[in-house]
Specification:
The chain is of the alpha/beta class. It is 48% helix and 14% strand. The model has no long low-confidence stretch (mean pLDDT 94).
Amino acid sequence: MNDIAFLFPGQGSQRPGMGSDLLERHPELLERYYRPADELLGFGLSRLCLEGSAEDLVPTEITQPAVFLTSIAVLDVLRGHGVTPSVTAGHSLGEYAALVCAGVLEWTDALRLVRRRGELMAGVNERTPGAMAAVIGLSAHQVEELCAGIRESNGAVVEVANYNDPRQHVVSGEREAVRAAMAAAKAVGADRSVMLKVGAPFHCSLMNELEEEFAAELEQVIFSDPVLPVLANVTSTRIRTGAEAKHLLRRQLAGSVHWSDTLRAIADSGVHTFVEAGPGRVLSGFCRSTLPEAVCHPGGEIRRIDRLLRAVEQEAPLPA
């Protein structure tokens, strides 16, 4: 079988009941991950993942550990069936799961960091209400220019947070500045702009104030050197050491997610089969848009994992 890249999703991939089908098939995950996660965090994260409503999963400090925990469960199931990656990366929050996959972080340490990251980000939004919006149908250069024009005209913060695929970019910043960017995008021919249901303006300079406090959290955790290639969001290049991983997670708070460049870098290394190891199918869509010739397989539900396992057993190309 071809080499495989595991991609781990970020905020926005959450959904009610995520992971419940995995637990039905693999009840051992409850004691291995879900109950320890509840004890570690001091609240019922497992109940929120498995039974919570869409509204329950909206707060950033809940969403982030919930998506992470589900991704770790998916990773366990895939590995348990002998499906292992030759390279990995994660989108924003997903970078923590990718670092667990690559042996840089223990999953319990990563869960603590993810929870604290969500709390700190939510706090920024309380002090400076912000927003994020996906702009669809414009190039990266066009979106960068319209953000720069808004900043120059009124000094408000609005920046490109995510370079998701060649025609989808997410802007982040102060709420009115994001609305202005959406209007400007429409005026220059964007297909559409969509306000995202997120709890804070991620990956923009409003997050700079968190760096020192979060750096202190990072210093409490052991970062090992990667045992397999893992690519960073802010550079779209390979992380070589645990110390570098720690530094890049700090930068990632306010830095842009260069996702399309990350996918291209993986493809340039010779890997053309991608598995989305977590809830949802968002990253599979970005993969297909960025790399039309690649095989992109969502793997967050048991029925999709079953398809993947059948392909492995047959030593056949992974199904699209």
